[in-house]
Amino acid sequence: MTIVRSIPLYKKVSSEILKQINKSSFPNNTLPSEEQLSASLGTSKHTVREALAELKSQVYISKRHGIGNTLIRSVLNTQFRIDANMNFIQLLSRAGYAVTLEQSNFRIENLTMLGFQEQNFYAYDEIMYADNKPATTHHMYIPVAIFGQEDVLTECPRCSLFDVFSQHQITAFHSIVEFVPEIADQETSNLFSLHLPSVINTWDEIIYDQNDRPICCTKLRFHPQIFPLRMVRRDFEIVE
Fold first, then answer.
1. Element (H, E) at 47
2. pTM recorded for the entire structure
3. Which residues touch 4 (CB under 8 Å, ≥6 apart)?
4. Helices (H), strands (E): how many in the chain?
5. Phi/psi at 75 (5° precision)
6. DSSP reduced 3-state for 122
7. Cα separation, 146 vs 170, whole angstroms
């Protein structure tokens, strides 16, 4: 049995509102009322209200008494914002790049990795290209044992890794990411056409299932000029 995932309606509506914001100009940077948005989008006011709450939580809009929902342009114009979106293909596409993905070097390795005991891993590599230039490298490691049998994977997955998990009733529930700047090695410097020594951003992520069992480890390296990492912070305290 395959697990079918659906995107909540309010998230679809929030995405549609963002598209309208990016395509249109609004007087005084203020969105139409909930009633007007509901009518134009063909959905209920409750769903619109949930979608606006989502956009507010991501600091794309601010609700001000007597004015309504106003746009925060500095945040809307912030690209590569990983606190709002960690889909790297979408992040590159929204920055105007044509994105392609290349998978290679499928193998089975016996490794001891952080968060995992020594065991056999399905491993493969990915390079994500932006306008035909390498933007990120990914090294993927999936424990063979989580599938309960050998030879579930015999080549690089042609679909999303999460679809592979779903086909085997495995649910990716959460992940823990560690960011560590590092000096690029010779191979990475050559791939990204960087001068040595160059500092790059790295992303080491362990993905867990709903039972808190580690089911995948990914190691990512980002081209510093093509793929900067940014986030929006809103936890300032007022000191009196």
1. helix 45-57
2. 0.77
3. none
4. 7, 9
5. -75, -40
6. strand
7. 8
Q: Work out the average pLDDT over 89-109.
A: 92
Q: Which of 171, 154, 158 lies closest to 126, judged by CA?
A: 158
Phi-psi region of 80 (alpha: psi -120 to 50; beta: other; left: phi over 0): left
Alpha helices of the chain — where are they, by DSSP H?
9-23, 34-41, 45-57, 73-76, 88-94, 161-167, 186-192
Other C-beta atoms within 10 Å of 2: how many?
9
Cα gap 104→158, rounded to integer Å: 11
Return the DSSP state at 158: S
Element spanning 46, H or E:
helix 45-57
Residue whose C-alpha is closest to residue 207's, from 236, 178, 237, 186: 178
Is residue 213 within 8 A of residue 174, CB to CB? The reply is no
What gap in Å lies between CA 28 and CA 224, rounded to an integer?
Answer: 36
In whole angstroms, give the CA distance from residue 121 to residue 206.
14
Local confidence band at 205 (pLDDT 50, 70, 90 cut-offs): very high
Residue 25's identity, in one-letter code, is S
Query: Residue 140 and residue 108: Cα distance in Å, rounded?
Result: 11
